[in-house]
Every structure is written in C-alpha cells, then in structure tokens.
Amino acid sequence: MTAMDPLTSAAPQPCCPEFAAVSRRGLFTGAVALAGATTLVGSAAVTASAASATPAPAVLVVLSLRGAADGLSMVVPHADPVYYAARPRIAVPADRLLAKDGMFGLHPALAPLLPMWAAGQVAAVHATGLPSPNRSHFAAMEEVEDADPGSESRSGWLNRLIGTAPGRSPLQGFNMSGGVTPTSLFGPEPTMSASAVDDVGLPGEDEWDHGERRRSLRTLWDHDRSPLGRAMRSTYEAVDTFGPAQAAADTTSSYPDTDLGKALAQVARAIRGNVGVEVFTVDQGDWDMHAGIGSADGGWMVDNVGELAGAIAAFLGDLGDQAGKVTLLTISEFGRRVVENASQGLDHGYGNVMLLAGAGVRGGRYYGSWPGLRADGDADLLVTTDYRSVLAEVVATRFGASTATVFPRFSPEPVGVMTSL
User: Is 0.85 surpassed by the pTM of this model?
Assistant: First the structure.
C-alpha cells in the first residue's frame, strides 16, 4: 500500500456484558494481590535463563485501545459522502478537522499531536484490521495479539519478537499496566509486569530488610541449574538491573492526570533509564461506545481522543536523548459500524485506523487503500490492510527481525509508513 493521494466529562459504562463484566483493571488488581508482589514475572519464566539487560537499540510501545475504538471518528473520511449521511448526529464536521487532505482529517481532539504530525513524526493507516471480522471483544483481542491464526502454540507476537533478540531477560518485554500479561507478551520468553517503575522490586523487601532477602535468594538459587533456578536468578537479576530506571526522574506531573498519562510517564521513565526494555505494552480504555458517543464539542469520544493525544504528546516530548529509538503504535481489536444507532452510539464493526508515532515513522500522511463506505448490509468499514502488515513493517525496519518468525504463515504487503533501517 502507498500513501493516500491528497487529491483523491464522564464516559458512560460499556454496553457489552463480556467487556463490562470483568475489566482488565480488575484482572490486574486480582493478579497482583494473588501473586503477593508488585512485580510479576512473565507467563513462562520457568524457562528463563539468567541474563543481564543491555540497552535496547530500538524500543516499541504498543498502546491498545481496549473496547474497539471508532477509527472513523479519530481519522475522518470527510470526502466520503456516506460518512455524513450515516452519522447525522455524531459526525465530526469537515470544517473542524485537522491536517486535512483530499480524503481524511484528524479529530479536533487530536490537536496535541498536530505539531508532531506537521514535523513528520505521526502517521495514520486506515482500513486496517483482522483478515476476517470478529465482533467479540476478548476473542478479537486474543486473535489480534496472538497474530498467528490457527496455531496451537500459546505465544503472542511481541513474545516472538523479543525471542529474536539475544538474551532472555524479563526486562526485554514489559507490561506497564500491572498484573496479567497480555496475549501479545505471553509465551516462552520471560517478561515483567508492573503498574509503575517504583513497584519493581522483590516482595517483602523494604528499608528494614537490609538486603537479607536478596542474600537468601542468592544462597538458595545461585547454584541451582534447574529451570526454576534459572527463572529465579533471571528475576532477581532483572530487578537489580532496573535500578537506573528507578533513578530516572519521575515526570508524571507533566502528563495529563489520567490512567494513560500516568502509565506512559512510567514507560518514558523506564526508557530514559536505558535498562534494556525492547517492548512495552500499555492500555487505554474504554472505547466501547454503543451509546452516548457525544459530538465534536464534547462527550465520550472527545474525552477519550483528547486523553490519548495529550498523553502521547507528553510521552514523545519526555524521552530526551532516547527519542531516536522509540516507536509507538496504537491498535484496537476492531472498529465500529459506519451507521450510528438510535442511542447515538456505534455498534461493533470491522475495519479501523492505526496511529504510529516516533522513530522511523514517515509521518504527516495518511496510508492505506480506501475501500469506500456503505450504509447498507453490515455497514462496516472493510479491511484493505491486514494489521499484521503494519506491525511487520515496524518489526522489520526498527528491529531487523524476521517477519516470518514473528508472524508465521503470513506474507506482509508493503505499507510504506516506516523508513528502512
């Protein structure tokens, strides 16, 4: 695919029982409490070998928009007449859009990203998604994050990515949401999960411990060559290696006072500590807007988009001398229908938009092949770019990794959104 030709307040509760019944935040809280620790080793830490982290040559931050964000509101196809006909009450007016070209424009709440868009640091790829529709939140999340349909292997694409790099430190993959590791990081490579940089530590270790816990662990495990011994050494050595991140300045106060702002502030702090993390996962929710989406002047969509843009802008400005190696992308399990429903919301759809920002991004442009909108039948935005093609381009250009290893049985098509190594 090539770049498009420029001529051509409080949010309501989610409506989907599967999405509302068990929130990811609830899962995280329960997992941390169950583990009895603020630092959790990844899903398969028993296979880990002890390894010290080394500075990562490239860092990828994957920001998941949980609940199915409406890409047609974030990046509006203002030149497609069906968009305005299908959304008489919730459409974003064309004269309010930012960075307009002949087809698309950015939601006005994305204004914090406009300077970076103009500087070529932010881009959008439209009509992306799974190879076939999946309208179940959790099933689609798992399918997107596994990125290997039909496989019986329990490993996510980010776990496979860090598996292509030397060293098996849990620090290579880090879930900065705390608790449960997302499917994308699940697999044989060890990973870590915490809610904040200062939460990384050994359970029970405090100022009264005087190093006794670490000495005890080393006595128990330093000479144990079993898989469990290797896992334990990998864990406490990774915690020791994380010190420079904890010594880095905490700039949370310069971010939006939101969950996403706080999480990205912690990611930036870890990156500035240069401790060897290669991939981070971060969540933002909730985007499950079946009702009460609001208008361009305010409401649920404006709040979410504004939170997203403000947090990303603060993050990109907070990286210091590490900015040249950090790429961020957004992904959501699926998009939403073209036609608004009676409750001024949008039901589950198919195609969506992905935003990319930072190092290696050919920014200031819209990418993808636009299929046109229809208001009849399923009224979905069709997918013309498999989301894995976008991810594969990031993997190949930023990490030099084998896309065949990270995305088995998939042949990516060129998108053009990333520069080559």
Answer: yes
